[in-house]
Structures are given as structure tokens and as C-alpha cells.
Amino acid sequence: MNDVYVIGVGMTPFRRAAREDLAGLGRIAALEALRDAGLTPAAIGGGYFANVLGPQLTGEVTAGQFVLASIGVRRVPIVNVENACSSGSTALWLAVNGIRAGEFDVALVLGAEKMSVPGLGLLRGGSEELETQLGMVMPASFALRAARYLHEFEVTPAALAQVAVKNRRHAALNPLAQFREPVTLAQVLDSPLIADPITRLQCCPTADGAAAAVLASGRVARADRRAVRVDAAVLCTGSYQNPTDLVRWETDRRGSRMAYERAGIGPEDLDVVECHDAFTIAEVLHTEALGLCGPGEGARLAVEGATALGGRIPVNVSGGLLSRGHPLGATGCAQLIEIVQQLRGAGGARQVEGARVGLAQCMGGDQSGDAKSCTVFVASR
Amino acid sequence: MTAELPPFVPGVFQAGASGPVLLGSRCGSCQQHFFPACELCPDCLSATSTAELGAHGRIYSHTVVRTKPPLGLPAPYAVGYVDLDDCGLRVFALLDPALVGRLQIGLPVRLAVAPLGTDQHGQPCLRPYFTAEPA
Ligand SMILES: [Zn+2]
Q: Is the pTM of the predicted complex or chain greater than 0.80?
């Protein structure tokens, strides 16, 4: 089986109301990744395009072929990928497996989303599902986890809110992040309640943006001194078991365990983590599922600074979904890009000193109190 | 007059001897219960049949949604997970909007059905929700 490396990355700023359309955003990120890899389009053996809302908003399908053709990637297999918030990381997973299988040596993975459109409401898992007909909306699904978490572990809402303060502080150091103005704990807690106990500043914003990565086999990557190796790429799906434990997320734990096994490491070996902090409670639950701390201890990590830049295990130094922004299809790629930059030592003002092993975790979709999709990547230099 | 309104979707609740009961499925082979209802048991792929899941339980978690409500629901509205007494399932459900401010994990609740919000065609409809057991 081929080893797989990341040899090029590129992304646009994440922000509201970007000038560019979906294809324009995608082009910027993909070209930057190609140039970063030092390759021309002819070197690309396969392309993956992750996007969630395009077909629904514009009626356009197979956008991936259109975008990639415009930067010269033609003739090769190109796949359009949708897995909700984990679309970008699912596209990466497909590319890793394509290279491992020997189908091609170099793949271009592009995630892009244009969400600044009139009338975009709260996202739902699917209008045909019963939960949706009973009033389930995305913030509620995480608020229900938060309410249970506060109850079981006697944690205060302020401890949860600290995650938003921390990730905003990180985003101030990321020129591509959507929200860079620091916020205080009081501001987070006093922002309007969305779904108790989650306030507005504890929910990730919508954004426009694109992120791309060039992945290559060891054969191609050998000469690249900046190459970052992918040690594990895991994609799994919810079990939808009932009763489900909303604060000990089985799917999250299963995905993490598989990633550690495949990479041959444990949580203690990690230097830097990006996780799917769509809401403050989400980061708390993921840090626990990843084994960075025990059950009920995740909120304390943010309060005590363990997950802040300079702490024991920095989490979401990019600003995370909460502050870097969350253009659905791009997020999974942006997370891996952050890990790659950190492992290259190119993290700039938010560089984690001496980072050698990183992990990116993402989730997408919601059904029966479970995630429809969970990805975990481990990478190292 | 509420009896004239259609349910929000068919097959989720029915009238029982002492009030409405929630409907789901039961596997003919392994006897597991499911909610929402499913045609095939996901474990043994046997056909399921409709099963009464009961009307009583306790709140496992709850939240009050304060964004613009979907489906013509009141603002704010409450949802939660309820642990059902009879079958052991933990089901996602609407909670009585009148309970906002009094919701508590562990609160004993029972199923009610009343006009609540609109259906997919924007028409008024009946929805099931859990409300506090009488003291
Ligand atoms: Zn069965």
C-alpha cells in the first residue's frame, strides 16, 4: 500500500459575502495548492470536489468537473462529494484511498462553499426525516448535548463559553479567519440565546470560502522536504444505537480509536488538534472522545488553558469553525491544511512550538442523536 | 374540533385507552423496538410490525429553541429526548411549549396530542408532544 503525503495546500479567506462565486473561490484555493506543490495540472491523476449547498441553491450539479477544468485538470477521474460538514474531509479520505490503492499518484482535493445567499435558514439534516418534522434544528441537537453535559458533570455554562473565547483569541492570529476581534466571556454569555444553554457566540457562523490540498504517493513526495505524511485517514458512520448517550459520543470515540490504531499512536503523542467545534459543546465532547482528557473534563481544558496556544495540547489554533468560519464543503480541507502548516512550521503567529504530530477531526449530519459521518486524520513529519 | 385536523405525518401516534400513545416498530425476530418506525430491522433485516411504545417517560435532556421557529411552531418552542418507561427507547420529541421555564432533566412526562404548528403544506395539523405528568 502506498504511503500518502500532503505536498501542497491553499485556501481563500473565510468570510461573509465574498466577491467570488463558488467556482471563483474554488479556483483560487486550487491554484494556490497546485503552486504550493510545484505542479502543473497535468500531474494531477484524480480530482475531488466537496460542496454541500451548490446543487440546492443553484440547481447546478457536477460543479467539480467545471471548476477543475477551469484550472486545467481534465481527462482524469473527478468525483463530487457531499457529506454535510465533513464533505471536505470525506473527499480527502477518498483521495488518500485512491493513492493507497495505486489508482493514481497525485490527487487534488478541493472543498468550496458559497453560503452568503438570501434566505439561507438553519440547516437541517433532511426535510423528510421525522426529527425535522418534530422541530429538530442543528443548534438544538447540540444544545441537547450541552444541557445533558452541564447536568451530568455539574459544569457551568461559563465553562462551555470559554471555548468560544479561546478560539476567537486563536483566530486573531489567523489572517484567513472570519472573526478576529477578541470576545470576552461576558460577551459570549450575554449574546442572544439560540437554544438553551447555547448562545449566538457559541455557534459557528456561515461563511464563503474554499480550501484545497494536493496529495501524493511517497514516490512523488520523496523529493519534497515539506511533505507531511498522512498516518491515518478514517471515515465512519453513526450507529444510531438507542438509547444513545449524548455526552459520550460512541461514533466519535470509535472514529478516534480507529485513527490512533492505524497511526500507531495515542492521544499523548499529539502536538496539535483541529476538531469540529460547530458549537462550544462540540469541541468539549470531541476533546473527550479523542482521549485528550476524561469524561466531563473537556470544558475544564479550555478554562485552564490546556487547549489554548501554548497549553498542553492546543485545539483549534486556526480559530476553529467558531471563529475561522464554516463554509461547509471547505471546512474538512481547511482543518487538514492547518495541521499541515503547523507541522511544516509555517503556522506564523499561531505556530505550536515543535509540532510534529497533528490530528484533524470532523463530523457531518445529524440523525437519531448521532453523527451521520465522522472523519479523523492523523498526520506527521 | 381538533379531531378534524390531520396528523403532521401519519403513523406516529394513535389514540389509546387512556390517551394517545407513541407508535414505532418492533422486529418480529429479535423483538427490538424502534423509533421512528422502520420497515426492516437494521440488525436482522426481518420485517417489523407497528408497535405501541407507550405514553410515559422522563426527560433525558431538553432545550428551548429561540431562533425563528420552523413549521409554524410557537416562539420559543421546546424539544428534548424522553426516556420511555415501557420500551426503554430514548426518543426525540417536542415538549409542551407551556413547560418553558419549568423543564428539568428527570421530569416525568406523558404524551399529548394537540394542534401544534403546520404540516409540510403549511396547513394546521396535530403534533405529539410530551407534557408534565399531573402532580
Ligand atoms: Zn431484528
A: yes
CATH topology for A4-117+207-227 is Peroxisomal Thiolase; Chain A, domain 1 (3.40.47)
Name the CATH superfamily, with its identifier, for domain A130-205+233-380.
Thiolase/Chalcone synthase (3.40.47.10)
Q: Which residues of chain B have pLDDT under 50?
A: 1
Q: A81 near A90, Cβ under 8 Å? A: yes
* C-beta of residue A14 within 8 angstroms of C-beta of residue A324: yes
- Cβ contact B35–A135 (<8 Å): no
B63 contacts chain A (CB < 8 A): yes
ipTM over 0.90 threshold: yes
- Cβ contact A373:A332 at 8 Å: no
* pLDDT digits 0-9 by tens, B93-115: 999 999 999 999 999 999 999 99
Q: Look over chain A and give the mean of its residue pLDDT values, rounded to a whole number.
A: 95
Helix/strand/coil for B94: strand
B130 touches chain A (CB under 8 A): no
Distance CA A286, CA A290 (A): 6
pLDDT at A343 over 90: yes
Minimal Cβ distance to A135: which of B65, B66, B68: B65
Nearest chain B alpha carbon to A129: B36
Gap from A20 CA to chain B (nearest CA, Å): 29
- Please list the residues that pair with B79 across neighbouring strands: B63, B94
Q: What are the residue boundaries of the structural domains of chain A, listed by start?
A: 4-117+207-227, 130-205+233-380
Q: Report the sign of the C-alpha dihedral through residues A170, A172, A177, A180, in that order.
A: positive
